Amino acid sequence: MERLKLVLQYFQSNSESISNGICIILALVSVKLYTSFDFNCPCLPQYNKLYSLGVMTVPPIILFFLGVLVNRHTGVMMDEWMRPTGNRSKNPAVVKYLFSAMIQRALLAPMVWILVTLLDGKIFICAFSVSVDPFSYQNLHFGLDVIKIMAKVPCREDVIFKNSSFRKAVSRYVRCHSQAVGWSILLFLIVLGAMGRLIKPCFDDHATFLQTRYWSNYLDVEQKLFDETCVLHARDFARKCVVQFFEDMREDTVLYLPHPPFISNFREDWEEEEEERLHGITKQQQVDKLLNKWYYSKPELDVTRISHRPKTCVTWEDREGNTLYSDV
């Protein structure tokens, strides 16, 4: 249970971890889909390869675009690539980094599908059973067309192969080639990934890579914070509009009640907190102008002004000028 909590905390820690988790889930879904998929080869010479090619390519294409769709890096990359320059210059290295991360994660599920199909071998048998030389096997005595016979090899229930070991021999032969191709692709991908991790630091500047990764994470976090701030502002703005509507409909009423001072202070603090969350944006035109400015003129990456703004310090002194308490 503790390990499961640690795994969930890892996948919820940041957007990159969430994207990794989604890609792993898609890969597991692709395996589940293949195992539950009822594969029925047409067993006809003109359709076997076409059907097998469709099963090998169409689901991976769907899984690839699904991986692109659910990947948060896709939206961040397109926003950074398509936005106007404004006060902030574009960094092509960041766009390239986000594109690379998106492609790598989106390719995981399609590659899992292709590897599973190759290691299983049924699709390969359906596609290439016709290519096997039937006369290399002994005890072959069929009076029908040889191509039609080889096309029916994937169909184990066919009466032609009743009480015959020929179909099993051909299927075993083609499945061996399919598994060899699958293991070779897997080995190539592992070696390619290992070589990339080992060789990349020798040719790339690690400091540049850290900068690119930092600013790519920054873009993601910035967009998240902007969306969260917009949601908070929209909630407070809507509440203000509703309260204002009800107060406009209410008739003036005078109530004479005792007024403790702490209620006044509480209400003032609450109203100040609301005003702070509205940031002075209290009209529709102001909201539209703010959103328009955010898109067309992103703020420059300089927070010096807000980091060094003046702070009010309070010092308490007695009648003789001696300091009793100070914030300085």
Structure description:
GO terms for molecular function: monoatomic cation channel activity. This is Calcium homeostasis modulator 3. This protein is mostly helical and 328 residues long. Helix content is 68%, strand content 2%. A two-stranded antiparallel ribbon has the order 1-2. A hairpin with a 5-residue loop joins β1 (315-317) and β2 (323-326). α2 (15-36) runs parallel beside α6 (108-120) and α3 (48-70) packs across α7 (122-128). The longest helix is centred in the C-terminal third of the chain and has 44 residues, at 206-249. The protein is elongated and about 115 Å long. The protein starts with a helix and ends with a strand. The model has no long low-confidence stretch (mean pLDDT 80).
Features of the shown structure:
328 residues; mainly alpha; two-stranded antiparallel ribbon; 13 helices; 68% helix; elongated
Question: Can I get a quick summary?
Answer:
It is built from 13 helices and two strands; from the N terminus they run αααααααααααααββ. It has helices at residues 2-11, 15-36, 48-70, 72-82, 92-106, 108-120, 122-128, 146-151, 166-203, 206-249, 261-278, 284-296, 304-307, and strands spanning 315-317, 323-326.
Report the count of strand segments: 2
Q: What average pLDDT do the residues reach?
A: 80
3D shape: elongated
- Which radius of gyration do the C-alpha atoms yield? 33 Å
Helix content class? 55-70%
Number of helical regions: 13
Strand order of the largest sheet: 1-2
The quaternary structure here is: single chain
Strand content: under 5%
The rounded distance between the terminal residues' Cα atoms is: 49 Å
Low-confidence stretches: none
Write the element-wise H/E pattern from the N-terminal end onward. Answer: HHHHHHHHHHHHHEE
Output the structural class: mainly alpha
Characterize the biggest β-sheet: 2 strands, antiparallel
